């Protein structure tokens, strides 16, 4: 899994750096912790049992 900028205490989206990063994120916002945890739960669950060797970008379109 490859997460993009996520709004956390150590990486706040409303910081000066966070505001500069918004120009690189097509969705125009930082991700939320819940958006990453949902992907982790999916990959750890039975519905993802046949997924191997892939990178899941969760970055608001930054890598697109």
TrEMBL record:
SUPFAM superfamilies assigned: NAD(P)-binding Rossmann-fold domains
Pfam families noted in UniProt: adh_short_C2
GO molecular function: oxidoreductase activity, acting on the CH-OH group of donors, NAD or NADP as acceptor
InterPro entries the record matches: NAD(P)-bd_dom_sf (IPR036291), SDR_fam (IPR002347)
Highest taxon, organism lineage: Bacteria
Coiled-coil portions: none
PANTHER family in UniProt: SHORT-CHAIN DEHYDROGENASE-RELATED (PTHR42760:SF50), SHORT-CHAIN DEHYDROGENASES/REDUCTASES FAMILY MEMBER (PTHR42760)
Similarity field: Belongs to the short-chain dehydrogenases/reductases (SDR) family.
Protein name as it appears in the record: NAD(P)-dependent dehydrogenase (Short-subunit alcohol dehydrogenase family)
Organism: Sphingomonas prati
């Amino acid at each position: 899994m490859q997460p993009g900028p996520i709004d956390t205490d150590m990486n706040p989206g409303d910081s000066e750096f966070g505001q500069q990063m918004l120009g690189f994120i097509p969705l125009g916002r930082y991700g939320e912790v819940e958006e990453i945890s949902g992907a982790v739960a999916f990959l750890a669950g039975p519905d993802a049992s046949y997924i191997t060797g892939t990178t899941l970008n969760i970055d608001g379109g930054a890598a697109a």
